[in-house]
Amino acid sequence: MPNPSFNSRKPISVHALPIFVSLFFSAIPHSALKIPPPLPILPLPSASQLQWQLSSMALFLHFGPNTFTDSEWGTGHASPSVFNPTLLNASQWVHVAKEAGFSRVILTAKHHDGFCLWLSEYTDYSVKASPWRNGKGDVVAELAAGAKEAGIALGLYLSPWDRHESCYGKTLEYNEFYIGQMTELLTRYGDIKEVWLDGAKGEGEKDMEYYFDAWFSLIHQLQPDAVIFSDAGPDTRWIGDEAGVAGSTCWSLFNRSNAVIGGTNPQYSQGGDPHGHDWVPAECDVSIRPGWFWHASQVPKSALELLDIYYKSAGRNCLLLLNVPPNSSGLISDEDIQALQEFKELRRSIFSNNLAEKGLLTASSIRGGNDNYQFRPYNVFEESIYTYWAPEEDQRDWILYLDLQESVSFNVLQVQEPIHMGQRIIKFHLEIRSGGRWKNVISGTTVGYKRLQQFPTVQSQYLKLVIDMSRADPLISYMGLHMDRFSILSHASNTTSQIYVNGSQVLRQVPNKHSQTATV
């Protein structure tokens, strides 16, 4: 029997259906439709490069026979019996790193002397020939276990130069030997997040051709999430000095074809290349002590010295790689730990409070219109690169205006770009309202993942951040104002960071009254 309740309903006329559908969709407000983000600008970082950059700081651990022989570059002839760190505790190293705010550690698994801190099957010149743990210990294994437990990323340094191995200098034999050792390190110890190589070699040493391309392919095959460091990338590059200081202009853009491992122009490494086709961000390596290995006669840098290095490395779009060498007992020394803790406290005191975040923020324009929440200026107070302020396209002005609602003193500006969308900003400046007029406080060049700009203390309620030049419409993911009561500045109040673009013209200059002509 037919369902009477069903039959009692009159079906919708086919002719009325288009009207019904039209009314349904017209009821959906246009505001419910998202505005697509702007196009990324090439080159872009890989997923592993993004994770590397977000970590900001890594701890380098130089450790080996040099620790016991008061040497920096071992000859490769020291007896394995000298290596006996009776109190070695790799978990202490990891704990020190984590407590100080470092999210990855990198160990010299083999330095230039050729001594291996793991039980390699390709040489007897290793921990298995030492008295430590009766020849059964494995420093790499202990560090890997400690890092995994603490949630700290692990990196390994395997020196290409080997002063002990007899086949060094025989191109085919040594490259096979090196790849064998690399395979051991990348298949025994779980996830490796960074592989560190360099072109260091003493004068008068044997000539040696390294098959870098084969090495890099193997590393990415065995550890696809690892970044590879060298003078020329492929994933991260050396900054060009061992002082931990990046150029005041520092691009993650780079041309690997212009770089040679062991022979890259330091100035090119320091500044990068605004016209580069490759994404190869810079890593700033520096030691907490005068030497890279521990020496009883040396003392660590002060927390203030470390803070200054931080501004000039992590604060210039780089990762800070700070070497903290374990001592001959196998522990990080108390004085080094104290310096690291004081360094952490300085950073906490300065950067834990964003003096701008309670202010009223407006922008010269907003992508999708002023009511668009997705690209609103207040995104710059969220600590994430994935939310950002984006201006409307084809604008003459790129400005963020900030009303702090009361007069505030500050002397540090922090700016960040959403680097997954590419590095864009070429030049910017900060102005404050003083005496009824706008006054320039600081000018800067590149931003990238993080830019920290110091200047003598100013006080104001009103300020504006002006983007003067950019490779494309600028995007800002974070803006912070901070008070550093510890650093002593030696430069004038109207400080301008120099702009270097390797002899090439600026890609784009904003044609407005806020722009300033750059000398390039």
Write a structural description:
The chain has 520 residues and is of the alpha/beta class. It folds into two domains: 306 residues, Glycosidases (TIM Barrel, Alpha-Beta Barrel); 134 residues, Galactose-binding domain-like (Jelly Rolls, Sandwich). The chain is built from eleven helices and 17 strands. The chain has an eight-stranded parallel barrel, surrounded by four helices. Helix 7 packs parallel to helix 8. The protein is globular, with a radius of gyration of 27 Å. The N terminus and C terminus are likely disordered.
List descriptors:
Jelly Rolls, Glyco_hydro_29_N, 21% strand, Galactose-bd-like_sf, 17 strands, EC 3.2.1.51, 22% helix, 520 residues, disordered N terminus, TIM Barrel, apoplast, seven-stranded mixed β-sheet, hydrolase
Task: List the topology elements.
Elements: H1 4-7, H2 17-26, H3 47-55, E1 57-61, H4 66-69, H5 90-99, E2 104-110, H6 139-150, E3 153-158, H7 171-188, E4 194-196, H8 212-222, E5 227-230, E6 236-238, E7 253-254, H9 266-271, E8 278-279, E9 282-287, H10 303-312, E10 319-323, H11 334-351, E11 360-363, E12 399-416, E13 425-434, E14 437-444, E15 451-470, E16 478-482, E17 495-496
Parallel strand pairs: 1-2, 1-10, 2-3, 3-4, 4-5, 5-6, 6-9, 9-10, 14-17
Antiparallel strand pairs: 7-8, 11-12, 12-15, 12-16, 13-14, 13-15
Organism: Gossypium mustelinum
Pfam families: Alpha_L_fucos
Family: Belongs to the glycosyl hydrolase 29 family.
